[in-house]
Specification:
- The protein is 38% helix and 14% strand.
- It has 391 residues and is an alpha/beta fold.
- It is globular, with a radius of gyration of 20 Å.
Length: 391
């Protein structure tokens, strides 16, 4: 899962133009900045002093530290999560007419990047508890043209990887982890990202680990993949003005590397706070007629989003919005039913779990600086709707 567009951010934060006073923001990036202001200011000042605005020592430092954090041999910093997916698909050799299996319950870029390199996304449904790819549906969608599987660690919860890896081994398929919402999440006590052949992260500002602009990274334990991605991100060049392959300008800016390197030191602490807030939400919302998120046994969930299900989702959304509480809908239209993919012939009813989720999910405010008082306020505002609805 990679970076949303500017239009998507407006949808996610969901702040209607009529609301002047926000009671509880969806994400509070200002509060986060204030908590580490001096370190951030010093890091940005270093970039200004050394004038390494593209790549440079700050990006290299972040690459080394993030690789160590997730347990990968290599990290290649790029300018967005979408760029990470794009380059990885090229690096593993996906091309014209190749098929890649993806869950439809994800941000559009997961499938979009497959199309951009000439491939065809093959959509599968998701598990109704974890909301991640249903591993039992994968094998039936594999054909002689299938080259890769992209499990998405959605909302901060890892997909079930071991059975997926077994399927990939049997069919000689690449596994590309879309970890754009899962910084620090763990699958069976191992951090996601480098568990498959290669993993992709987004550092969009609202992520658990967010830049102050666009940013992304590729992580892998495979040196050949790492070399290919490094070439592709910088015009196919590993030495200025000498180009081995046709590439792209997908380099990370120095300032983003500096900011991310500071924020990485706090990621575990912030994720622990997210988990604490999720537990508080579970406590105060347990008596409402809602489906609350579940942490599956193999996972260490980092709650990029706290996503509930409600049969009265739209009414609940309107009530919270009217009270100045920002919410998000992830995602209102499944990818397989988007107009952009109408040519693939999917119909409503093909992926019933995903389609049902799109009609019922609502993401509540979630960020480390959230307070119990704010969560209790959200529950109180929601109570008249949740008490009367039927699941």
């Amino acid at each position: 899962m990679s970076k949303p567009s500017a239009h998507h951010l407006l949808e996610v934060t969901n702040r209607p133009s009529g609301i002047r006073n926000v009671t509880v923001p969806f994400v509070d990036l200002k509060a986060q900045y204030q908590s580490i202001k001096q370190e951030i200011d010093d890091a940005i000042a270093r970039v200004l002093q050394n004038s390494s605005f593209i790549l440079g020592p700050e990006v290299e430092s972040f690459e080394q530290n993030f690789a160590e954090y997730v347990g990968a041999r290599f990290c290649i910093a790029v300018n967005s999560g979408t760029a990470a997916l794009h380059l990885v698909l090229l690096a593993v050799g996906v091309g014209q007419g190749d098929e890649v299996i993806v869950p439809s319950n994800s941000f559009f870029a997961t499938a979009e990047c497959v199309s951009v390199v000439g491939g065809i996304p093959v959509f599968v449904d998701v598990d109704e508890t974890s909301y991640t790819i249903d591993v039992f549906q994968i094998e039936s969608r594999i054909s002689e043209r299938t080259r890769a599987i992209i499990p998405v660690h959605l909302y901060g919860q890892p997909a079930d990887l071991d059975p997926l890896f077994e399927i990939a081994r049997r069919h000689r398929l690449f596994v590309i982890e879309d970890a754009a919402q899962a910084h620090g999440a763990e699958y069976k006590a191992r951090r996601v990202g480098p568990l498959g052949d290669v993993g992709c992260f987004s550092f969009y500002p609202s992520k658990n680990l967010g830049a102050y602009g666009e940013g992304g990274a590729v992580v892998t334990n495979d040196e050949d993949f790492a070399t290919r991605v490094r070439l592709l991100r910088d015009h196919g060049s590993d030495r200025k003005y000498y180009h081995k392959v046709i590439g792209y300008n997908f380099r990370m800016e120095g300032m983003q590397g500096a900011v991310l390197d500071v924020k990485l030191r706090y990621l575990d602490e912030w994720n622990a706070l997210r988990r604490q807030h999720a537990a508080t939400y579970n406590e105060v919302l347990r008596d409402g007629n809602l489906v609350l998120p579940s942490e599956v046994p193999y996972a260490h969930h980092v709650y990029h989003a706290y996503v509930i299900q409600s049969s009265a989702r739209d009414e609940l959304h309107r009530r919270l919005t009217a009270s100045g509480i920002q919410t998000g809908i992830h995602y209102p239209v499944p990818i397989h039913l988007q107009p952009a993919y109408s040519s693939l012939g999917y119909q409503k009813g093909d992926l019933p779990v995903t389609e049902g989720l799109c009609e019922r999910v609502l993401s509540l405010p979630m960020f480390p600086e959230l307070t119990r008082a704010q969560i209790e306020m959200i529950a109180a505002v929601a109570a008249p709707v949740t008490a009367s609805q039927h699941i």
